[in-house]
């Protein structure tokens, strides 16, 4: 099983980034996919979720209206479009796949929002 995130980097406040997570080794379409983040000195928090069966999405309150999660089951990839980025969005962003007792994590990608 592999989850490989990409697309992180340095962006100015108000800017945008699109994260990708390429999955392999499991039946991607059957798994709910999640993005988490962990800022320095803080715990890991759930950013957004998209279900496997019907692409229902949910977001943490602070991300609603700014972040969009989507998936392409043909490419085994989940995305996180992040707009109107703020310095407090600086964190390592992790991709997560979950179904029943199965719970897989990527290695994370750094997002830094700074002028």
Polypeptide structure, described:
The protein is mainly β and 115 residues long. It is built from no helices and 11 strands. The protein has strands spanning 2-6, 9-11, 17-24, 32-38, 44-50, 57-59, 67-72, 77-82, 91-99, 102-105, 109-113. Strands 2, 4, 5, 6, 9, 10 and 11 form a 7-stranded mixed sheet that branches. A hairpin with a 5-residue loop joins β4 (32-38) and β5. It is globular and about 40 Å long. The mean pLDDT is 97.
Topology:
Blueprint lengths: L1 E5 L2 E3 L5 E8 L7 E7 L5 E7 L6 E3 L7 E6 L4 E6 L8 E9 L2 E4 L3 E5 L2
Parallel strand pairs: 2-11
Antiparallel strand pairs: 1-3, 3-8, 4-5, 4-9, 5-6, 7-8, 9-10, 9-11
How helical, in percent, are the residues? under 10%
Structural class designation: mainly beta
What distance separates the N and C termini?
A: 37 Å
Radius of gyration, in Å, reads: 13 Å
Uncertain runs: none
What is the averaged pLDDT score?
97
Biggest sheet architecture: 7 strands, mixed
Q: What general outline do the C-alpha atoms trace?
A: globular
What sequence of helices (H) and strands (E) makes up the elements? EEEEEEEEEEE
Q: How many helices does DSSP assign?
A: 0
Portion of residues in beta strands equals: over 45%
* Beta strands, count: 11
């Amino acid at each position: 099983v592999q989850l490989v995130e990409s697309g992180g980097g340095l962006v100015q406040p108000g800017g945008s980034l699109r994260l990708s997570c390429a999955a392999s080794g499991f039946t991607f379409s059957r798994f709910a996919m999640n993005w988490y983040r962990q800022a320095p000195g803080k715990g890991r928090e759930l950013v957004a979720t998209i279900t496997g069966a019907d692409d229902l999405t949910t977001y943490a309150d602070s991300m609603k209206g700014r972040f969009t999660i989507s998936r392409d089951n043909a490419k085994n990839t989940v995305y996180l479009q992040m707009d109107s980025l703020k310095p407090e969005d600086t964190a390592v962003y992790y991709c997560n796949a979950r179904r029943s007792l199965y719970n897989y994590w990527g290695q994370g990608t750094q997002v830094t929002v700074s002028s």
